Amino acid sequence: MDSGPKLRLLLGTYNAGKAVEISSLLSDLNIEFLTLRDFLQARVVEESGDTYEENAILKARGYARQTGILTLADDSGLEVDALGGAPGVLSARYAGAGASDGERIEQLLKEIRRIPGAARTARFVCVVAVADSAGKLMKVERGTCEGTITNIARGSNGFGYDPIFVPHGFDSTFAELPSETKDLISHRARALHAMQPFLARLISRNLTRGDANS
Ligand code: IMP
């Protein structure tokens, strides 16, 4: 772990599962993580874009502008080939506003109940965006993870659609695999791996200037 002043980075998400994964995936960097719980007055940024990129950028810029803190936001979803890529960018809102993860899983399994195993292909997609403390977009990265959808939910780790997604090369769902395994191969791991050199450069630049905490 690096020493010296830490880079303050706000995670622009209300999804606790995402926040845990992001901070764990970036734990090698000298970062002090803030969450939206530290800014209770912040208004929820509407995910009004048509793509993961648009929504990740909206969230990163929107929360950075409201808080004055360097912000990283994630927009992600599950694309099921038999459903033409749905629920995709609407993954969090599938089965209606206020539905639980369990209800969204139930709805998805119902819609593909007649699709045979070999055709139950899917992928998780994650786009991460970083905006500076003034809300200016700095960097966007994307990661994907290919797999298949099970017939029933299995496992209790992770969040969201993890209990019905088996990544390629495994027999277990993300919710059955240890978080360390998901963190090696997931869409979020890949997007953040691509983002890591940029954050490392920001940290070393700020440490040289001695203002990482400003
Ligand atoms: P959003 O990025 O806030 O629009 O929400 C993305 C939604 O996609 C989440 O609420 C989950 O339902 C789903 N999702 C994204 N990443 C994952 C993951 O790693 N595991 C399981 N579900 C995920």
Strand arrangement in the largest pleated sheet: 2-1-3-4-5-6
CATH topology: Maf protein
Structural class, please? alpha/beta
Architecture (CATH level 2) name: Alpha-Beta Complex
Say how many strands there are: 6
**Strand content range:** 15-25%
Helix content: 25-40%
**End-to-end span in angstroms?**
21 Å
Q: Helical segment tally?
A: 5
Question: How would you describe this structure to a colleague?
Answer:
The chain has one domain (7-204): Maf protein. Helices cover 31% and strands 22% of the residues. The protein contains five helices and six strands. It has helices at residues 16-25, 52-67, 101-111, 179-185, 187-209; strands at 7-11, 31-35, 71-80, 121-131, 137-149, 165-167. Strand 4 and strand 5 (137-149) form a beta hairpin. The longest helix has 23 residues, at 187-209. The protein binds inosinic acid. Inosinic acid is lined by residues 15, 47, 75-78, 91-92, 124, 158-162, 186, 188.
List the helices and strands and how they pair.
Blueprint: E1 7-11, H1 16-25, E2 31-35, H2 52-67, E3 71-80, H3 101-111, E4 121-131, E5 137-149, E6 165-167, H4 179-185, H5 187-209
Residues 15, 47, 75-78, 91-92, 124, 158-162, 186, 188 line the site of inosinic acid.
Output the keywords.
Maf protein, six-stranded mixed sheet, 5 helices, 6 strands, alpha/beta, 214 residues, single chain, binds inosinic acid
